[in-house]
Structures are given as structure tokens and as C-alpha cells.
Amino acid sequence: TSSLRYATAHFSDGGNVCLVFKLSLPSPLAMTLGLAREAFFYQNWEKLLTTATGCSSCDLGDMLPRVYHASGCMETGEKLLMMEDLQSKESAGCVQLGYLFGPIVDWPSNPNNWDKDLSIVNSLPLKLDEKEATSLAFSVVAKLHAQFWRCTELT
User: Does residue 75 have a pLDDT over 90?
Assistant: First the structure.
């Protein structure tokens, strides 16, 4: 399966960017699951957005990460993604959707939240319950999907 690592790149002009690295090592399971396909999608991310929308912003602004590197190998299942960490953008208020479904004490909860510090949810600029968050997430995915409707570049 995949593992995540985080880093911050600091630049001489004082700017910095927070990055997330997603890595799948070569393994029979990674190969069987086709984990490298995610890297192939992101290799064409900017091109696909530009082709489908005529611009690279895709009307979704800061909700889409910049992709700095994506590579994968179907024969081994390995992949490496290096992209912008949207969760580090405090003003954007980006967190994993599952965080809004509470900790383990609120069973049934999202197993991805087990052993996570969910206090970040309290500092989000937008307060949503589970139903509102799910509805908003589906709306965003629908907008992204609509950008590619009948896009011949994907065939």
C-alpha cells in the first residue's frame, strides 16, 4: 500500500511550500492493486485541467493541489507523488473529509481517524456537520467531473 511523508521546502526569497509525498514501494500487492495508476493520472493533471477548461485553475482554485512530480511503474506497482499539501493552507481550511466524522468514541467513526488529533476541526473557518460536509464534497467532485465531461483527451 501507500505511505505518506510531509516536508516543507524553504526558498531563498523567504517563501516556502508544504509538500506531501505519497510513495508505494515495489510489491506484489502494489502491482496487483495497480497503485501506479494514480501517478499516471497526476502526470497529466495540469494538461488535463488546461485541456478540459481552457485554463489551469479549473474554477476550483485552492481546492486542487499543485503537482510537482508523479511517476509510477505498473510492472512493480511502485509510485511516487510530490504535491502541494493543501492541509497546510490555514486560510483554505483544507482537511481530510473524514476528520469531520469524529473520533473513535463517536462510533461508528471513520477508522482513518483512529489515533488522530482532530482538534484542527475546531479551528476551521467553515463549520459543517457530517451531512453538510459530505454534500459539499460531492458538489466539488461533481464540478471537477463536469470539467472533463466528453473530454476527448481522456480517451
Answer: yes
Amino acid letter at 57?
S
Assess whether pLDDT exceeds 80 at residue 95: no
Instruction: Flag whether the pTM goes above 0.70.
Output: no
Strand residue runs (E) in 11-150: 16-24, 67-72, 79-84
Q: Cβ–Cβ contacts within 10 Å for residue 93, how many? A: 15
Is the previous residue joined to 108 through a cis bond, with omega within 30 degrees of 0?
yes
Three cell numbers written together for 115: 489515533
Q: Averaged over 22-43, what is the pLDDT?
A: 91
Q: List 142's β-bridge partners, or say none.
A: none
Classified as helix, coil or strand, 22 is: strand
* DSSP string for 29-62: HHHHHTTHHHHHHHHTHHHHHHHHHSSSSTTTGG
Three cell numbers, residue 110: 471513520
> What is the Cα–Cα distance from 74 to 35, expressed in whole angstroms?
8
